[in-house]
Design goal:
single chain, about 375 residues, alpha/beta, Isopropylmalate Dehydrogenase, 10-stranded mixed β-sheet, two-stranded antiparallel ribbon, about 20% strand, globular, binds 1,4-dihydronicotinamide adenine dinucleotide, binds magnesium ion, 3-isopropylmalate dehydrogenase activity, cytoplasm, branched-chain amino acid biosynthesis, NAD, 3-isopropylmalate dehydrogenase
Length: about 375
């Protein structure tokens, strides 16, 4: 069996800085745990535009289709703000998601005890929180036709269309139920079946798919109530399944329950490849943070936890993913903080590379 392959796309701004720390961790798993990966690296976003005149070269796209997992840093920055829409850095990321057909976006919202004070909610509401939002990523209102701004009489009308086929709902639902089987066997599906036909179909299809997973407890909730429940009592949820638009909003809301943008990983998964692994892209939720880029201040944990997700969902190394997450937890419990995690004055922040080294030391200590 060939080694599993990883394509690293550091991108722009703090992307390369946080990815350097992830590379150390990938090397650690090779040296200390015998997990060898074939790692290659390429350009995306503004960095790719600078070299190729577009934010993702065709060769890079082709490589992304072949590897077992893509790890991406972040794209964009002020230097590229005036570029034409078609070559903006974000288009590189969108092209990856679109052409790899990554329909299932996994956004964990997990509260590390050491950071529970960081939440805008009361500590006992978020302490121990561990939920996963599964957002359908390739269809729905962001893609539905007709769309556009049209003349209608003597004024203009802006149109977007929420559109879901049964098969699109089904595959997203399956991915949520499969995930639930590996977690606490609970799925809450959110739509607005009370006012939207696409929501009625969503609920119907999810219910049907759920019959294939009799062990999983399925519930349904209107998405507006879901938003309220997320801030009222988030621990009632385990896996939340929802569409592209509601998922965009609900996942950002859930994320902020747990603190800093520098802590939040994500995975975007597609259909299984010939080797059984899903097409997969792992990336931190944050952007390229131009305000702190190049200063060694960025928190690499979001990107490190994205690699932990790769271990779990692409490489079937759940125990090693647990090890990495526990190492992060230990570092935080020990009080190691990058600048974004500083709640009070008087604590000296560590740099990006010091945080990476602290995670490596905690990994060593786990052996
Ligand atoms: P951002 O996530 O880059 O930054 C928002 C704030 O959070 C900034 O103050 C930043 O310093 C801080 N921050 C973010 N990640 C951090 C980390 N790891 N450690 C410490 N602090 C961190 O979002 P913003 O400012 O809206 O966008 C900046 C650029 O990034 C734009 O060009 C935007 O288009 C792009 N972007 C790219 C994304 C991606 O690649 N997936 C996602 C969001 C934005
Ligand atoms: Mg968003």
């Amino acid at each position: 069996m060939p080694n599993p392959s990883i394509l690293i796309l550091p991108g722009d701004g703090i992307g390369p800085e946080v990815m350097t720390e992830v590379r150390k961790i990938i090397t650690w798993f090779g040296d200390k745990r015998g997990l060898q990966f074939d790692v290659s690296e390429d350009l995306v976003g503004g960095a790719a535009y600078d070299k190729h005149g577009k934010p993702l070269a065709d060769e890079t796209m082709a490589k992304a289709q072949e590897v077992d997992a893509v790890l991406l840093g972040a794209v964009g920055g002020p230097a590229y703000d005036d570029l034409d829409f078609s070559v903006k850095p974000e288009r590189g990321l969108l092209r990856l998601r679109k052409e790899m057909d990554l329909y299932s976006n996994l956004r964990p919202a997990q509260c590390f005890d050491a950071l529970a004070d960081f939440s805008s909610l009361k500590k006992d509401i978020v302490a121990g929180l561990d939920i996963m939002i599964v957002r359908e990523l390739t269809s729905g209102v962001y893609f539905g036709e007709p769309r556009g701004i049209f003349e209608e009489g003597n004024e203009r009308v802006g149109i977007n269309t929420q559109r879901y086929t049964e098969s699109e709902i089904e595959r997203a639902a399956r991915s949520a139920f499969e995930l639930a089987m590996r977690r606490n066997k609970k799925v809450c599906s959110m739509e607005k079946a009370n006012v939207m036909e696409s929501g009625i179909l969503w609920r119907e299809v999810v219910t049907r798919v759920g019959k294939d997973y009799p062990e999983v407890e399925l519930s349904h909730m209107y998405a507006d109530n879901g938003a309220m429940q997320l801030v009222r009592a988030p621990k009632q949820f385990d896996v939340i399944l929802t569409d592209n638009l509601f998922g965009d909003i609900l996942s950002d809301c859930a994320a902020m329950l747990t603190g800093s943008l520098g802590m939040l990983p994500s995975a975007s998964l597609g259909a299984p490849m010939a080797n059984g692994r899903p097409k997969a892209l792992y990336e931190p939720v944050h952007g390229s943070a131009p305000d702190i880029a190049g200063q060694g201040k960025a928190n690499p944990i979001a990107c490190i936890l994205s690699f932990a997700m790769a271990l779990r969902y692409s490489f079937d190394q759940g125990a090693e993913a647990d090890r990495l997450e526990a190492a992060v937890e230990k570092v935080l419990a020990d009080g190691v903080r990058t600048a974004d995690l500083l709640a009070s004055e008087g604590v000296e922040p560590v740099s990006t590379s010091q945080m990476g080294d602290a995670v490596i030391a905690a990994l060593d200590a786990s052996l």
